[in-house]
Write a structure and sequence with these properties.
By secondary structure, the protein is mainly alpha-helical. 49% of the residues lie in helices and 6% in strands. α7 packs across α13 (266-275), α8 (166-175) runs antiparallel to α9 (182-203) and α9 (182-203) packs parallel to α14. The relative contact order is 0.15.
Length: 311
């Protein structure tokens, strides 16, 4: 899910020598060219995407594709000029991967393509890492970015609807319009996304659920274990990346002017995000996400008294 820590996790897991990254190849704004990736996420029988997307995924795994660039108008002028000349992160990582034929492993990082995870796993044998961030941190991240989360992302005939319960479907209809409260829409989006992903993870032994708050508590040890579980190497370059990115010498909040800042004190980020929400906001997120969040988090993590939860 966007803002769930995928960039951080992928950067750490690809720090070892000989590991490449493909960056958001399924993103409709900057994905592999020649495919409507918005339409491709509308799955058919067997959780398979349309034929053109299946063919493009096969070529992507052989690095025989081209990828578009995304240049947000909000970027500083110099950054926009660099992206137009050299490409954004997707083309950069694809080009870098093609120039490193000795790489024996890679990571496909794409929170926008989460609905394709089962196909990538079942059809191509890719182990999947589901990154999960506490719903309070997720919602606060959307607020910080000024985003309104997408809620109605299932077609009426989608096989994914079968994984939702009656209340999930009601919330999807209620918050699927364009006038939904941004905080509540982000909470419902979290609930629906992880209802599906955690259900898939229970059915697939090769999948790993990476809870960002747990990883951040002891990033060196937990990331090295995660890398081994999904068949990725871990070396001194990985250790250096962890120390550089997560140490207490870094601030908890992103540095001024940085929309995304990977050099943070990872142990303090969740506390910072939780504190940015009022008790009433935390209570509303708790109410909307708890039926799914209880699989991973305890009630105390929402920072609410019994009276606040009831209100």
């Amino acid at each position: 899910m966007p803002r769930s820590g995928t960039t951080f996790a992928a950067t750490v897991l690809t720090a070892a020598r000989g590991v490449m990254m493909l960056h958001e190849p399924f993103n409709p704004q900057c994905g592999v060219l020649g495919v409507d990736w918005e339409r491709a996420k509308h799955l058919g029988e067997g959780l398979a995407p349309p034929e053109d997307a299946r063919e493009a995924i096969g070529r992507m795994l052989r690095l025989r594709v081209r990828q578009g660039s995304h240049v947000p108008p909000s970027d500083p002028l110099v950054r926009r000029m660099v992206k137009r000349l050299a490409g954004s992160r997707g083309p950069y990582h694809l080009r870098r991967s093609k120039l490193r034929p000795w790489c024996q492993a890679g990571v496909v990082k794409d929170p926008t393509g989460w609905s394709l995870s089962a196909h990538l796993s079942d059809e191509h044998g890719l182990p999947v890492v589901v990154t999960v961030k506490h719903p309070l941190a997720q919602v606060a991240g959307y607020q910080r970015a000024g985003w309104t989360a997408k809620v109605k992302f299932f077609d009426p005939g989608s096989p994914l609807l079968g994984l939702l319960d009656e209340e999930d479907r009601r919330l999807m209809e209620q918050y699927g319009g364009g006038d939904a409260d941004p905080l509540e829409a982000a909470a419902v989006s979290w609930r629906l996304t992880y209802r599906v992903l955690l259900g898939w993870a229970r059915e697939r032994s090769a999948w790993r659920v990476a809870v960002m708050e747990q990883l951040s508590a002891d990033p060196g040890e937990r990331f090295s274990v995660l890398a081994g579980e999904v068949g990725l190497p871990w070396d001194r370059w990985s250790d250096r990346a962890i120390q550089r990115m997560t140490g207490g010498h870094n601030p908890a909040e992103a540095r001024p002017g940085r929309f995304q800042d990977l050099k943070r004190d990872s142990r303090r980020v969740f506390e910072l995000r939780r504190a940015s929400l009022s008790a009433a906001e935390r209570a509303r997120v708790f109410e909307l996400t708890w039926p799914v969040a209880n699989e991973i988090y305890d009630e105390e993590s929402f920072g609410l008294s019994d009276g606040e939860k009831e209100s």
